[in-house]
Structures are given as C-alpha cells and as structure tokens.
Amino acid sequence: MPGFLNQLCPGKIVSAETAVSRIKNGSRVFIGSGCGEPQHLIHSMVKDPDIQDIMIFQMLSFTLDQYMNDTDFLERFALKLFFVSIPMQQAASEGKIDYIPSYLSEIPKFFRSNQIGLDVALIQISPPDQFGFASLGISVDVTREAARNTKLVIAQVNPQMPRTYGDGFIHVNDVNFIVPFEEPLVEHPTQAQDPEIARRIGRYVAELIDDGSTLQVGYGQLPYDILRFFNDKNDLGVHTHMITDAFLPLFKNGVITNKHKNYLADRAVATFCMGSRASYDYIDNNPSFYFGTADFVTNPGIVGQNDNFISISSALEVDLTGQVCSDKVGRMFFSGTGDQTNFIRGAALSRGGMSIIALPSTAKNGTVSTIVAALSQGAGLATLRADVNFVVTEYGIAQLQGKSVYQRVVELAQIAHPDFRADLIESAKNNHYIFADQLPPPAEDLIFIENYKSRTRLKNGKVMSVQPLLPSDEIAFRNFFYSLNKETISYRFFSDINTFSRKMAQKHWAHLDYRKNISLAGFVRNKGNKEIIAIGTYSKANSNRAEVAFVVREDYQGQGVASFLLGMLEKIALDNGFKGFCATVLQENNGMLHVFNKRYPNARKQEIGKEVHLTMDFKE
Question: pTM (2 decimals)?
Fold first, then answer.
C-alpha cells in the first residue's frame, strides 16, 4: 500500500508523529466519530507533549475514554462532545467533558457556517482507488463536512476500513497528510441486557409493523434488542442513522430487502455503522447500502419521503402527558439529543408513517418507574408531547397521538409497571389531569391477555382485530355505544338506554378481571383510526358457567362477527375453567339466536315471557 500511495500522492505520506506535529497550540481539532475513530492518530496526538491547549470536537468518542483520568491530558485537551457515549458517561458526570446539545443533522451546518470553526480534522479512510478516491467507510455522518471545512486534514489510511457507497468519498488531493497504518477498527457489538423484557417489548412493537415498512432504529441497546423479534416480517426497508450487528440476521435472512422502498429504492440508507467486524465486512463494497451525510439522512423532509416509515427509539422517562426524556436524568447525561425528534417528525410526514418510543417500565433494578407523573428534576426534554405517537413497554402499547391529557394518563398508567399504577393515577388526580373517580388499571401483569388477541377477515373483506377491552378504550367504547341504533341497544341491554355516562364506564371497568369477567372488542380500521364495531362479553354466573352477550354495530351484522367472537370467548372461558355458557336473548332477536344455535345445536332453552334462556355446554 505505501508504494501505491507514494505514486498516487507523492509528498503526502508521513508518519503519525510527523503529521500531528503540524497541529498548532490552541487548535480546534475534529476527530472522526464512533467506530471510525483514527485510533493511531489520536494516540500519537496525545503522546506529543508539545501539543498544548487543544479543543477537541467529536460526535461519538470511545478511544479518549482511556485518558479521562490522566491529569496531564485534561490540562492539555478540552473535550467537547455532541453525544455522550456509554464509556464517556462517568467522565461527563465528573465534569471532565463539555456536552453540546445538538441535533445530529445540524452539526454539518455548524462546520459549514463556521459557527464551530475547525483548524484540524483527524479522520480515517479506506485505501484510495486508482482514481484517488478513498471512503470514509463507517463514519460518513458529520466527518465529511468537517474535513471540507478545516485548514488541515490528516487521514489515517487503514486497509480494515470498509469502502461504502454513497456520499462518503474523499479525494487524496483534499487531504494534507496521509498516514498509512493498519489496525482493527473500534468495535461496538450489541449485547442483550434483559432478554425477557426485550422479548415482550419486541412482541408489542412487532404488532405495529406491517410488511414492507421502512424502519429507523434509534441509538440504544433496547431498540436493537427488539430487531430480533422481526423475523416473521417480510420485505422491510431501512432508512436510519446507524447500522449495527442487530440488522445482520434480518439482511441475511431476507427480512430486510428494501424492495418496497419508494425513496432510494433497493438500498438501506444510513449515516454511520457501529458494530463488530461482521458488520464491517457485510457493508464493505456492498451496493445495497447508501451511507449519506447526517444532514441528509436525518433531515425530516428527506425521512418523510419514505412511505410507511416507522421510527423506533428509546427513552429514559416518559411523563403522563407524553413528554419524553432520552438524554439526561438529574445531573447525569446518558446520551445526546441525536435525531430522535427529526425521525419522529419525519415519520409524521410519511404517508402511512408512525413513531414508537420503546422503554422498559422500570429502571434501577425495578425500584423506579420510567412512566412518571412528571419528568425528573433536571431531565432533558427530547421529544415534545405533541410529537409522540406510540409508547411501548413490556406491559403493552399506549397510543397518544390525538389523545387528550386524560386519555394519555389512562393509556400510560396502563402500560406502567403494576407496582406503580395506583400512585400514577393518584398523582394525576392531584394534578387535575383526570377525574376524581378514575379507577387505576389492574395492578397485575396482564401479559396473558396477549393470547386473547386475534384477527379475522370478514365477509365484506374488512379485517377485524380482536382484543380485550381495556380502560384506555373508554372513549372508543363510548363512541361505539352512540353509533348503535335503539333496537340494537334494546336487544343487548333489554331496555332503552339513551346515555353512556362515565359512571357506567367506571362500573364496567370495576368488574373486569380478564379471567372471570372479560369483554372482547372487535376493531376495524377507518382511515387512520381503529373503531370498535362489536363487543362480546362473558361474566361468571357460577363456578362452571359464564353468561355471554354480544352487541354488533348494524353495518357489520351478518358478517360473521358474533360467531367469531363467540368462538374466541369459548376458548378463553375454557382456559379459565368454565364448562359452558348461558345467555338470555329476546325472542325477536333472531340473528343472535341463530349464532348460538349454530355453535351449540344441543343448547337447552327455556322461554320466559319475551325472553329465551339458553344453557350451552362446551365440547369435551
């Protein structure tokens, strides 16, 4: 390689010691980010005692962590980071670094406008080709713009740096000094922290993702753990800021194909890569990847051009109104502003897009809730409540977009850890977010009701999703009631009921325990909203039998809705030890009688006045 480089760019090939000796005291030095750090150049600069009073700018810093307890280093170098990586969290808490809160997409503009002036850029590149073009490889992000807007560019040429397609090419004519030095790249493999929590969250997130969607996955361990549960998806696309090892199985197994992407079709779009050597080898000279600059890849206007775009990111806390903290709790910085908000807003601009905030329900070994009444003192507000769509924990999914504060409280308390739900509801009452008679969600883990969910295609071609009715469905339940005509209400309740009050709703939730008493709701999508079109309920009548009842909206009667719900309720009742159903039906309700007779032809019937009482046994 040195011989070829000497022919290509004579006079530029020097040792690292010679190159860094050109750094003047007082310089503002940019260092390539993340796993693309030029480690050899960094160590050479630090070891040169003549280099003094240097201000270092870096997005993601790893190598410098080993100098954070070196007094001499701290006296000579001031470190300014746009993101607090995990190795740097301790140093940040001790005041040894200076954090610059910035969107990733804004950093290139700071360099171009000289708002952050640079004197030197230390970067790492792949070997140049015969035309003199080298690649920034796994760190295009803000590095390209830094190299373009500085007086002195020193490049470490490392044969282990992948050559990536996209906007990350730099010509040797634009480099002042070239230092050939081969060394392993920094590796940052993902490692699962709590597989059971990740499995449960992954299962919920997967429910929200349709085949053919384009994904962005935010920085943090949990979002990448979730990817392991997407194996049954088809033809997903990628437009994200970072590629990690967690993506590799989905690429190799054909889950991610990018074939349905409408913007930069057939290519996975990213701005940098952080993983193991396996990731670096996979993206090397792989034309199915496009590595662009941060101000392009994470620009909401660009993101929004992807149809069916789904942003998945993590958080440290979410308050009951939907505000999200993802970088700082108290005085501790845990990460950075990044581009969570840009991707979330890009998802809002996308046709068919949505955003998901995923987080465990507790922190500090289960001692504190991450769903909080109010963000912690000093917490950084990363995403505004008006931008948040879905929030997911291991206890379920809360949908906030378009919801009132009252509804948000109920949705979020419902997915909080059971130990904290009552206190959250009490705090919300004290803050006058909700009504004084609001009941807290059940203080138990309702993961078992996930088995009660199902989907079916109706005779009219619509897909009906079925799931247990939850307190957060109160508004949808109310809207469903008022969509029914008087005859349908009379058939269900045996009287003319004109109003569905909050008192009635609270009474309904008070008697739900999801084993002895349960209501299944059938939902059908109407444009961007899911509407309840039917409800089937059973409640314990005695030790062996439950009373069952249904109500189906008129425009969905005759579509097989009640028959499907009856089958699901029987399955649940069997799981919970019941031997049969009983029901009371008005004699004139021929449709409901037909549903029961069809499934239970041997049902015992007793006519009392205008009513028919049925006793139905399950098959052994």
Answer: 0.88
